[in-house]
Amino acid sequence: MILGLDIGGTKTAVVLGTREGAIRLRKEFATAPQHGFQKTFAELTAVARGVLDGAPEPVEAISVSIGGPLDVDHGIIYSPPNLPGWNAIPLKKMLTEAFSRPVYVEHDGNAGALAEWYFGAGKGFSHIVFITMGTGFGAGMILNGRLYRGANDLAGEIGHIRIAENGPLCYGKAGSLEGFGSGTGIARLAHHLFPGMWNDSATAAEVYRSWQSGSHEARQVFEQAGFRLGRGLALLIDMLNPQRIILGGLGMRIHDALLPFAQTVIQDEALPEAVRVCEIVPAGLGESIGDVASLCAALDQGEFTGHSR
Asked: 197 near 185, Cβ under 8 Å?
């Protein structure tokens, strides 16, 4: 069995799973990054010990899915935008010392791509892009049947791409793709466009509920966010020529508000031949994507066999 840690900016899940991606036990707690790394790490290890105590079989390894930038081989976390204060954190070393088991760490976008490739909507394809759309915005890429990390593990940081001259301030710059495609960015966009309707503590979920109720203002928010998202996805389609773009997080939950606008832009801007062979679909694993993804660093990097490829 594998102990999986899905560490996000809003919540952290600790799961016990098998090599086949089946989740046997799960516990969750609020990450609260404003409290600092040490407090979060203490809670993480306490919850992990509780899950380990409930394991019906020996746990072979610990597998981590977390936002980048990070050094995959050494498991060092370098200030992800959704985890402020996690500066050069040697997470792999600390977890190895705490639990005396092999530890594998992976970018959450890459882990999501692996999960969908092994067990979900990417199974059977050689060229897929998985998009994380949560507190942050990133991607994982399977190209020519292999996970692509780049020269120093920074491939997939598409949230940092400037997609507009101005826009919500996310990932260190105004106008980034994260500023239009993440939950944080959509909430900030709504506040910027209609401050009298949404204050600075609004959430993307609140904006979506307004859209479901027929709000004209919410439609304008999603029209602008979807337009920018479409431009970003059109770039990926032209550059990578994928067979599938798989949407996680908000891409599953609010796609009906975003995707129609994005699809219009994609049809206008991307190469027709590339668009023709590329499907944009929600994650096949649904809401369990984060849990299964947390196991995939070990499945990809460890000496495991028996998972579905």
From this structure: no
The pair of three-digit structure tokens given for residue 256, joined into one six-digit string: 């009906």
Among 136, 114, 137, 130, residue whose Cα is nearest residue 280 = 130
Q: What is the pLDDT of residues 49-64, one digit of tens each?
A: 999 998 999 999 999 9
Confidence (pLDDT) at 308: 41
For 123-157, the pLDDT digits (tens) are 999 999 999 998 889 999 999 999 999 999 889 99
Specify whether 277 is located in the same domain as 135: yes
Residue where a domain stops, chosen among 107, 135, 159:
107
155 shares its domain with 245: yes
Per residue, what are the HEC states of 8-75? CCCEEEEEEECCCCCEEEEEEEECCHHHCHHHHHHHHHHHHHHHHHCCCCCCCEEEEEECCCEECCCC
Q: Which long-range contacts (CB under 8 A, 24 or more apart) does 52-56 make?
A: 52/3, 52/16, 52/99, 54/16, 54/25, 55/1, 55/3, 55/16, 55/25, 56/1, 56/24
Angstrom distance (rounded) from CA 205 to CA 103: 34
Rounded-to-integer distance, Cα 92 and Cα 75, Å: 5
| Total-model pTM | 0.92
Structure tokens at 88: 């050069």
